[in-house]
Write a structure and sequence with these properties.
- By secondary structure, this protein is of the alpha/beta class.
- It contains 15 helices and 13 strands.
- The radius of gyration is 23 Å and the shape is globular.
- Adenosine-5'-triphosphate binds next to helix 2.
Length: about 425
């Protein structure tokens, strides 16, 4: 009997649950060069929260692997799937295609005993950009909106690119404080309130008003915010397409969503605990898996974005409320060091730069740099091969990530027709 390799699961859980509640992400590669061949299936634990890093140079298969993880969540048995939800932050506009079967790789899939299959993902686009998507004939399932009054002074300041200590920041904080006393408000209310301010100079007032006028163009605001529960449907993968927005607005959106989801999971966790004590039914908000492409842009090592604080909270405190993160990045050196040090699973596709390989060994200090270097150099050159570092079992595995059932729209363009 061939035994599956389960990564991300400690021996106690392995004993208790066997290979239940796992994602089939690929096969173990044994041997090197000509002798390299696939052996056991490699499964990834989702019964417990994890921080996963997916690394590798351009075109090495990172986004594809993110898609495999999402696909597998949707294929879990119903009793497990209904306790999970997956949110893909799509910076390149590539994950909508998961709805369609991967006919292109029919024969590759056949070699893995799999068939093309479209999956039920829910694509969200920012409310103000919905008409642009429609015009371009890009389909989506729902819109996403924030309410201006949900933003803190610091959210605005980080997105506008100034600090709360500068004159504009001081004016901003004063104006929002006055508005907050009145409850909910929109951007026009903020602009009116800036005009009414008597302490700032005309120049400062104009500068801040202009910032808010431009904020109307971000396409994310509405009088009614999308209830966060809409993104947390059990057993569903929600794709949040932020590909048409500037980075500061993407950061703002993710920051606010992550904050709201953390809060709602904290409450839910408490309810679950109470219902367990009372022997009743469990809470209804599923455990959350965030899959974040280009993660170093949202949570950089240097500087702070409007997503930084919320993501750091997930990284440092997300285990308790059951929130997992998959951070996908080309540049592990540029990702915040806490995201790196808290990661318990690393899927590293090909890395060529020596500094990136060195960074890898710094992340997982249990491994010898020499072992990592050797294993990476032994990886077959085919697409989707990777080295897995599993902190739970303190082991290294070479893996071929399995082909996708669903269409991957992230391939590089070709100058001539195939
Ligand atoms: N496991 C795999 N099996 C088969 N083909 C794969 C696999 N992984 C990647 N590929 C192929 O490699 C291409 C590039 O992969 P992908 O889009 O994931 O790169 P990436 O690492 O995200 O690159 P970038 O950093 O530019 O975003 C895919 O379009 C696909 O054709
Ligand atoms: Mg990519």
């Amino acid at each position: 009997m061939v035994v599956d390799i389960v990564i991300g699961r400690d021996p106690e859980d392995l004993e208790k649950f066997g290979n239940r509640g796992c994602l089939y992400i690929g096969k173990h590669i044994v041997g090197e060069g000509e002798d390299a061949h696939y052996t056991n299936r490699i499964l990834m634990d989702v019964l417990r929260p994890h921080i996963v890093l997916v690394l590798g140079k351009r075109g090495s298969g990172k986004s594809y692997t993110g898609g495999v993880i999402a696909e597998e969540m949707l294929l879990l048995p119903e009793e497990i799937r209904k306790n999970l939800t997956c949110i893909l932050i799509d910076t390149m506009g590539i994950f909508w295609s998961m709805k369609y079967p991967n006919e292109r790789d029919f024969s590759l899939l056949a070699r893995w005993d799999m068939k093309p299959k479209g999956l039920d993902v829910k694509v969200f686009v920012p409310i103000g950009l919905a008409s642009s998507y429609e015009r371009e004939g890009i389909s989506f399932d729902a819109t996403l909106a924030l309410k201006p009054s949900e933003l803190t002074p610091s959210d605005w300041a980080l997105t506008f690119g100034f600090t709360l200590q500068e004159p504009l920041g001081i004016l901003l904080e004063r104006v929002l404080k006055r508005l907050k006393e009145r409850g909910t408000y929109g951007i026009d209310d903020i602009i009116d309130e800036i005009e009414r301010d008597t302490r700032a100079t005309e120049k400062e007032k104009l500068a801040l008003e202009n910032r808010f006028i431009s904020a109307k163009e971000w396409g994310i605001f509405s009088e009614r915010a999308t209830p966060v529960e809409k993104l947390l449907e059990p057993g569903v993968a929600s794709v949040i397409d932020v590909s048409l927005q500037d980075w500061n607005v993407r950061n703002l959106m993710l920051g606010i969503l992550a904050r709201k989801i953390y809060q709602i999971r904290m409450f839910s966790r408490r309810r679950e605990e109470i219902s367990i004590i009372e022997g009743g039914e469990k809470g209804k908000i599923p455990m959350v898996w965030f899959i974040i492409d280009e993660a170093h842009e949202f949570l950089p090592n240097k500087g702070k974005t409007a997503a930084s604080d919320a993501l750091l909270t997930l990284v440092r405190q997300g285990r308790q409320p059951g929130i997992s993160c998959v951070f996908i990045t080309q540049r592990p050196n540029k990702l915040h060091e806490d995201a790196i040090s808290q990661a318990d699973l690393i899927i590293s596709h090909r890395l060529t730069a020596q500094s990136d390989v060195n960074a890898l060994s710094q992340i997982m200090q249990t491994y010898l740099l020499e072992d990592i270097r050797k294993s990476i150099s032994q990886l077959p050159r085919s697409k989707g091969t990777a080295l897995i570092l599993d902190d739970n079992s303190e082991r290294l595995y070479k893996i071929q990530i399995r082909p996708r059932f669903s269409w991957h729209a992230g391939g590089s363009p070709l100058l001539v027709k195939e």
